[in-house]
Amino acid sequence: MRAALLHEIGQDKLEVLDDVEAVGFGPGKVRLRIRATGLCHSDVSAMSGVLPQPAPFIPGHEGAGEVLDVGDGVTGLSAGDRVLVCWLPSCGECPSCRRGQTQLCLAGFMNAGTPNFKRPGKDVFGFAGTGTFTEEVVVGAGCAVPIPDDVPFEIAALIGCGVTTGLGAAINTAQVEAGSSVAVIGCGGVGISTIQGARVNGAAQIVAVDPVASRREAALRFGATEALAPDELADARQRITSGEGFDYVFEVVGKSATARTAYENTRRGGTLCIVGAGAMDDNFQVNMFELFFDEKRILPSMYGGGDVLRSYERAIALWRAGRIDLESMITHRVRLDGINDALDQMRTGESLRTCIEI
Fold first, then answer.
1. CB proximity list for 277: less than 8 A, separation 6 or greater
2. What is the pTM (predicted TM-score) of this model?
3. 310-325: string of b/e by CB count within 10 Å (b at 16+)?
4. Among the listed residues 301, 258, 350, 282, the one whose alpha carbon sits nearest the alpha carbon of residue 51
5. pLDDT band at residue 4 using 50, 70 and 90 as cut-offs
6. Nearest-CA neighbor of 103 among 145, 165, 175?
7. Cα angle vertex 328, ends 324, 334, to 5°?
């Protein structure tokens, strides 16, 4: 079957091959035919080594498709079912799951170290235990979440990661209050979803911050009340909040420098929400006095900070009701052969989300 593969960490191009095989099918597993997958910045971060991932590997974790076959012991799924790919399934048994923090379950991460593809003479990993830049993939049954018939595959794919992460950061983690002021630093697909979540919760001011003009323009269409280049944020803080700082600031880049900027633009007693996934050697620093004196809440948000199955259902309900716009987030569409063009468009900021039709 065909798949897009990264041979070594640090390479910036994928090779589309036709000699890849999905492996590991058996009890508790399902075989999926991928129909659509989104290109998420985490895929690029794994390729560059910012996020840990063994190689060679097939990127992609934001996918949707159809069930081809189910292994022994799998219930609730049948061949032909339409599903989205959940890259962080919960086991339901670990301490995090028992506390209701299923997004912190480590069971899904354990899959990332087991190859689920192979080529002649070589094992191949799937990113985050999935790997959706391919025609077929074998995953645990918990990674295949049924979707209603009225949800297109490309919409379901977005809900599988970026939309759930951004909406959840605003709604679950930060719990943005109606009438509040919000700044979102980084306006790619996840940042745009964060803006939509803040709008759903009734924020009065939503300031989008991004160095790319096209993303700033997009942010206004998705609910931002104004959109600024990074060097304009200090003036906006003075003008909108009289210098106090915003009630909520979301860092959706994954770098300590932007996290520090976000901290400095959060009001005393306000909330800084870290949404971007960064490198293990990039350290965010605050001094002990400001940590105590400013009483700012620093809240990391992992995969939307809540039960992902409930978050999927909420995203679908909001989309059906017209409260969030998911179709317009897809700014580019390519076939698998165009994956490297899509990577370039993401790196330059030209695209919000690219749908790869497989």
1. 42, 45, 50, 51, 254
2. 0.96
3. ebbebbbebbeeeebe
4. 282
5. very high
6. 165
7. 135
